[in-house]
């Protein structure tokens, strides 16, 4: 009887471990049912529609706020220590700084794209120079500019007049993920070809002068 009892205990322990292992995966499967959906295609409006169950989104925001500001939900017996409050303030300050740097980086990148379009791409298109293929040289840079502007707009919307503790930046990238990937797949696919074309243009004096004039206007 003793060996059977021991075997039974081992089986029970194994089942508990399996349940512990499977529980988070079952939870993730349920979460996927209400995960982000982007409805728009690459060629259309990239605004997208973020659809998530209200209870799921509310739960996420509550957990984030509790994690970042736990003192708000603590009882008198669970009041955080001075050291814990100090660490929490440091974490909040660091998070806020990262979000600001992210948004500023996107603003700088969008500004560079606008300069390139205005001072290089458009003037070259207007000149209609023989043997200079603007589309091959710059690929889908207009689409890159459009999706970058949309990303920055969503980031501004997610952070403007929103308390730092409840700013949900991750959902912005989930919302725009699909069109962002589709556009940059095209841009990256043609990058090496565009670099080779640029090198060939720089070997022709006339084309090189046109390109140099555009670069000079950027400076």
Index terms:
guanyl-nucleotide exchange factor activity, Dbl Homology Domain, Chain A, elongated, DBL_dom_sf, mainly alpha, DH domain-containing protein, Dynamin-Rho_GEF, 219 residues, DH_dom
* Residues in helices, as a percent range: over 70%
Query: In CATH, what is the class of the domain at 85-217?
Result: Mainly Alpha
Q: What is the CATH-assigned architecture of the domain at 85-217?
A: Up-down Bundle
| Strand element count | 0
SS strand fraction: under 5%
Structural class: mainly alpha
N to C succession of SSEs: HHHHHHHH
Shape, principal axes of CA atoms: elongated
CATH fold assignment of the domain at 85-217? Dbl Homology Domain, Chain A
The biggest sheet amounts to: none
How confident overall, as mean pLDDT? 77
Q: Please mark out the parts with pLDDT under 50 across 5 or more consecutive residues, or reply none.
A: 24-54, 72-77
Radius of gyration: 27 Å
Distance between the termini: 88 Å
Number of helices: 8
- The H-level CATH homologous superfamily of the domain at 85-217, spelled out, is Dbl homology (DH) domain
Protein name: DH domain-containing protein
GO molecular function, one term: guanyl-nucleotide exchange factor activity
Task: Report a brief summary of the structure.
Helices cover 74% and strands 0% of the residues.
Task: Outline the structure in words.
With 219 residues, this protein is an all-alpha fold. It has a domain at 85-217: Dbl homology (DH) domain (Dbl Homology Domain, Chain A), CATH 1.20.900. The protein is 74% helix and 0% strand. The chain contains 8 helices and no strands. The protein has helices at residues 2-32, 54-68, 82-127, 134-138, 141-159, 170-189, 191-201, 205-218. Helix 3 (82-127) packs antiparallel against helix 5 and helix 3 (82-127) crosses helix 8. The radius of gyration is 27 Å and the shape is elongated. The termini are far apart. It holds the Pfam family RhoGEF. Residues 94-219 form the DH domain.
């Amino acid at each position: 009887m003793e060996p059977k009892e021991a075997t039974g205990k081992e089986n029970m322990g194994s089942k508990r471990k399996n349940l512990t292992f499977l529980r988070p995966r079952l939870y993730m499967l349920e979460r996927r049912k209400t995960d982000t959906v982007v409805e728009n295609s690459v060629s259309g409006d990239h605004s997208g529609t973020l659809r998530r169950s209200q209870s799921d989104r509310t739960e996420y925001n509550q957990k984030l706020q509790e994690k970042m500001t736990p003192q708000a939900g603590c009882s008198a017996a669970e009041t955080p220590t001075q050291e814990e409050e100090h660490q929490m303030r440091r974490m909040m300050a660091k998070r806020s700084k990262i979000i600001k740097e992210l948004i500023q980086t996107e603003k700088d990148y969008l500004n560079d794209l606008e300069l390139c379009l205005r001072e290089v791409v458009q003037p070259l298109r207007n000149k209609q120079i023989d043997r200079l293929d603007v589309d091959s040289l710059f690929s889908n840079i207009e689409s890159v500019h459009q999706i970058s502007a949309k990303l920055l707009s969503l980031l501004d919307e997610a952070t403007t007049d929103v308390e730092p503790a409840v700013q949900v930046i991750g959902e912005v990238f989930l919302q725009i993920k699909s069109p962002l990937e589709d556009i940059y797949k095209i841009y990256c696919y043609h990058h090496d070809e565009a670099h080779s074309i640029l090198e060939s243009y720089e070997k022709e004096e006339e084309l090189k002068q046109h390109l140099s004039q555009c670069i000079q206007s950027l400076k």
